[in-house]
Amino acid sequence: xxxxxxxxxxxxxxxxxxxxxxxxxxxxxxxxxxxxxxxxxxxxxxxxxxxxxxxxxxxxxxxxxxxxxxxxxxxxxxxxxxxxxxxxxxxxxxxxxxxxxxxxxxxxxxxxxxxxxxx
Length: 119
Prior knowledge:
alpha+beta
């Protein structure tokens, strides 16, 4: 999956915004202000950090060499995914969805109510 396809998919999700909170080279996708994807734009190889349940993280890392412990992240909950190294786009989409859903599942009640107001 190329960077622009990754970006478009993330931005099509409910209540998502993009920003550069760390520097001008690191694009961050947030749902209701909570990070679910990080996309460095200054690297030669396209990659992204995505959140996952610890058990699934281990499974993905064991099965795919393109999935590694999250760079500069909590390695128990985050993976770095090489986007253009042969992974099927459907799997990358599944990982994006999972990351987004993990973040939404962690919302407090009031935040969930606000989230539900988005169409």
